[in-house]
Design a protein that fits this description.
alpha+beta, five-stranded antiparallel beta sheet, 2 helices, 5 strands, 40% strand
Length: 100
């Protein structure tokens, strides 16, 4: 009887954020906001965010390209994901940035 009650409680609990899928539309909005902020910091004259790829249910990776005022070009990966397993907060960060 106890096992049945415990099983019922486990099935009745809502799914956690780790099991939730990050909506692509939300990830795109956050990526564009982070891309614009990054472009301002680099003093870019033009920039774009390409289509994102989902590598996990809670993470989408975009490619970010920017043209700097001095003529150099920059490329980076822009990762958008949940802040933690137990959070619905969406964070974005850049990795593998190369300016040449």
């Amino acid at each position: 009887m106890r096992k049945l009650l415990a099983l019922g409680l486990v099935l009745a609990l809502p799914a956690s954020a780790s099991a939730a899928t990050l909506p692509y539309k939300t990830a795109v909005k956050r990526a564009h906001r982070a891309g614009a902020t990054h472009a301002r910091h680099l003093h870019a004259t033009g920039w774009e965010v390409s289509q994102g790829f989902r590598f996990a249910r809670h993470k989408v990776v975009f490619a970010w390209y920017g043209q700097l005022a001095d003529g150099r070009g920059c490329a980076a990966q822009l990762v958008v994901r949940y802040a933690s397993r137990h959070s619905k907060k969406v964070v974005a960060y850049f990795r593998r940035q190369d300016c040449s």
